[in-house]
Specification:
heterodimer; A: alpha/beta; 5-stranded parallel beta sheet; two-stranded antiparallel sheet; 15 helices; 11 strands; 11% strand; B: alpha+beta; 6-stranded mixed beta sheet; two-stranded antiparallel ribbon; 8 strands; 10% strand; extended; Mitochondrial ribosomal protein S9 (chain B); Death associated protein 3 (chain A)
């Protein structure tokens, strides 16, 4: 039907997503000479000739200093920081993109800036405030969450990041009856994986924080009162059977001690609607398990309640991993259900929406700079208009579309 | 006697099942009496039909007959020629040649022994007319009253008969060269200044040609309360019906049944279909669309909306662009519908598994 029409988006379905490219040395030189130009542009507070670089990138790599003028611009996170701060936080597609481009660049967007503003002005004497990021599928909730986490890590907070709560309520191979409480169930694998990542993210705190109770693991092993938290974590990683209990202990201790003011705690949960939804896990007699009966979920629910001070709780509700929720649901009310909404009430909702034209332009520029868009029409105006129409400025969709080009 | 032989022949032919059955069937020759009887029956039937429909038998035309038959015998067959028809026997039975020779064996026509008597007689007649016109021209020139009147060429609305039509008219087989010769002669005749009789003779061999595009009415733009221009269009595809309202001066937003098109069509292919009319006219971010669609599946709904949007956009653009859209196929309803499942087969085309024994 479409004879003789050269169009931008073709129907190539099986494209290789991972293209390992080496950065050519010319780029480094280019970035070096660009630096003074960018700074000058900032200082003068005017952008006479808007070079594409100035639109899509900024040299301000500290999230604390991001402001209104940086909206739409990408800032760089170094690879070492990535490994320490985000051992498990980033969405898989983003990880692939980082590997391809050999650099991690996040875009500064308004919802994240709003949250940063609130976080900077939190009063740590008050109970922790809950913020809920919500929005349609693919609008950038998880990456905004990562932006916040990066900021908090830079500010030396203790990050308690659960990358995707949905992973804990589905596809679990082994469920053990909990040693602590006969009613509940353990998930050793998920718990141990999470503990490992938690350790990488917060090494420096683990030795400082002291446990305030004695915990007996089994006949031979126990943790004395006053020993550092690192021991508990080690125990959880070594003895996989006790991993879930270790997680529970960590959460309890952190909650107790953050009110004391030694450190500031950030609880970041992605897909928090999993805590109050349904599970797909079954017992041996094929009866369904409610989320409360999973020890991890139970402890996490306690964490998310705002009865502690000295930190903040940032949550995301997402439909993508959720179970038994309609595709078009994106409001917190729909996704959390009545129980979840009542538990989380009051919270501050923050809507994450599609790109505005400036951000869209910046995103395209970023892809063009990294030579990700190979189609010859990609940098023309018509090409951009086509991409705009097809993705309707949705970041996730745009990324998937550009993967084909 | 002839009729009984005919009936006997009819009865026998199915019994003779040879391999080349189809080729062996000779053309049924209908006698003149048979045709006359058929015509009488047709007329009586026409009167009966008029009475049935409650109309006046005297003024019952062929269109009325067609309408009555489609009403009384509704048919869902796709092939129009397979539907029930009631037409004059002359149109149904192929034209047959009457016996060309008398009882003594002498042919009636003087050109019988050429083999193609009607063709050659026609050529003879046409050439006679050509000579007649040239003679008249010479006479006028001799008298000095000759004036070179430029001949107004026929308007583009007519064409010469094609070979099949000529064969049908003459009830004779022709060859391509014969046909070409005849057309050349007619053109030569029409190039000369003719009077009414010759024009009428030439006119018998011309057919009108409908103008290539039945231009569907391009509706003018309507204006709503704020003064913004908008226009509506409808589209259909397979079982989906769509109605679209396209506003000028928009920002490229499309809303379907109250939902954004990104949510309604998660598949990129459907959104590409929606993009096609705008991309074709280079008006990607300039219009707002609100539409409703029902029926069909995801792909047919996308096609229906595309057609509706293209039709609505016709009001905003120039005639040339409408023509380009029509040639690109944006304004044509896709005639493909689901084919019916036939008995004895598993699907519309798929047969049951063939077992050798």
């Amino acid at each position: 039907m479409l004879k003789g029409m050269t169009r931008l988006v073709s129907r190539v379905h099986k494209m290789q997503k991972l293209r390992i490219r080496k950065l050519d040395p010319g780029r480094f030189l280019h970035s070096g000479t660009q630096a003074p130009q960018c700074l000058v542009a900032h200082l003068d507070n005017q952008v006479p000739t808007e070079s594409p670089r100035a639109i899509s990138r900024t040299l301000e790599n500290d999230p604390a200093k991001h402001g209104e003028q940086h909206v739409g611009q990408h800032y760089n996170i170094s690879i070492q920081e990535l490994k320490t701060v985000f051992p498990h936080g980033l969405p898989p597609r983003f990880v692939m993109q980082v590997k391809t481009f050999n650099e991690a660049c996040l875009m500064v967007r308004k919802p994240a800036l709003e949250l940063l503003h609130y976080l900077k002005n939190t009063n740590f004497a008050h109970p922790a405030v809950r913020y809920v990021l919500y929005g349609e599928k693919g609008t950038g909730k998880t990456l905004s969450l990562c932006h916040i986490i990066h900021f908090c890590a830079k500010q030396d907070w203790l990050i308690l990041h659960i990358p995707d709560a949905h992973l804990w309520v589905k596809n679990c191979r082994d469920l053990l009856q909990s040693t602590y409480n006969k009613q509940r169930f353990d998930q050793p694998l998920e718990a141990s994986v999470w503990l490992k990542n938690f350790k990488t993210a917060n090494e420096r705190f683990l030795s400082q924080i002291k446990v305030q109770d004695k915990y007996v693991w089994n006949k031979r092993e126990s943790t004395e009162k006053g020993s550092p938290l690192a021991e508990v974590v080690e125990q959880g990683i070594m003895r996989v059977r006790n991993a879930t209990d270790a997680v529970g202990i960590v959460l309890k201790e952190l909650k107790r001690q953050s009110s004391l003011g030694i450190f500031r705690l950030l609880v970041a949960v992605d897909g928090v609607n999993a805590l109050w939804g349904r599970t797909t896990l079954k017992r041996e007699d094929k009866s369904l398990i409610a989320p409360e009966e999973l020890a991890l979920i139970y402890n996490l629910r306690k964490m998310v309640k705002n009865d502690w001070q000295g930190g903040a709780i940032v949550l995301t509700v997402s439909q993508t991993g959720s179970l038994f929720k309609p595709r078009k649901a994106y409001l917190p009310q729909e996704l959390l259900g009545k129980e979840g909404f009542d538990t989380l009430d009051p919270f501050i909702p923050i809507l994450v929406s599609n790109y505005n034209p400036k951000e869209f332009e910046a995103c395209i520029q970023y892809y063009l700079e990294n030579s990700w868009l190979q189609h010859e029409k990609a940098h023309t105006e018509e090409g951009k208009k086509e991409l705009l129409f097809l993705s309707n400025r949705n970041p996730g969709l745009l990324e998937r579309l550009c993967a084909y080009l | 006697m002839r009729s009984t032989c005919q009936i006997l022949r009819l009865k026998h032919s199915p019994a003779v099942t040879t391999k080349k059955n189809v080729a062996a069937l000779r053309r049924e020759s209908y006698t003149v009496d048979f045709i006359k009887k058929q015509i009488e029956e047709f007329n009586i039937g026409k009167r009966h039909l008029a009475n049935m429909m409650g109309e006046d038998p005297e003024t019952f035309t062929q269109e009325d007959i067609d309408r009555a038959i489609t009403y009384l015998f509704p048919s869902g067959l796709f092939e129009k020629r397979a539907r029930p028809i009631m037409k004059h026997p002359e149109e149904i039975f192929p034209k047959q040649r009457a016996i060309q020779w008398g009882e003594d064996g002498r042919p009636f026509h003087f050109l019988f022994y050429t083999g193609k008597q009607s063709y050659y007689s026609l050529m003879h007649e046409a050439y006679g007319k050509v000579l007649h016109v040239e003679e008249r021209q010479d006479q006028l020139r001799a008298k000095g009253l000759f004036s070179e009147k430029p001949k107004t060429k026929d308007p583009i609305g007519s064409r010469w008969l094609i070979k099949e039509e000529l064969e049908e008219m003459l009830v004779e087989k022709l060859s391509d060269q014969d046909y070409a010769q005849f057309i050349r002669l007619l053109e030569r005749l029409s190039a000369l200044p003719c009077d009414a009789a010759e024009e009428e003779f030439v006119g018998r061999f011309r057919r009108t040609v409908t103008v290539q595009s039945k231009k569907h009415l391009i509706e003018p733009l309507q204006y709503d309360e704020q003064g913004m221009a908008f226009s509506t269009g409808r589209g259909k595809r397979k079982t989906a019906n769509a109605e679209a309202v396209v506003h000028g001066h928009g920002s490229g937003k499309i809303e379907i049944n109250g939902v954004d098109y990104l949510l309604y069509f998660p598949v990129t292919q459907d959104r590409e279909q929606l993009m096609f009319p705008f991309h074709f006219l280079d008006r990607l971010g300039k219009h707002d669309v609100t539409c409703t669609v029902s029926g069909g599946g995801r792909s047919s709904q996308a096609g229906a909306i595309r057609l509706a949007v293209a039709r609505a956009l016709c009001s905003f653009i120039t005639e040339d662009e409408v023509e380009w859209m029509r040639q690109a196929g944006l304004l044509t309803t896709d005639p493909r519908v689901r084919e019916r499942k036939k008995p004895g087969q598993e699907g519309a085309r798929r047969k049951f598994t063939w077992k050798k024994r």
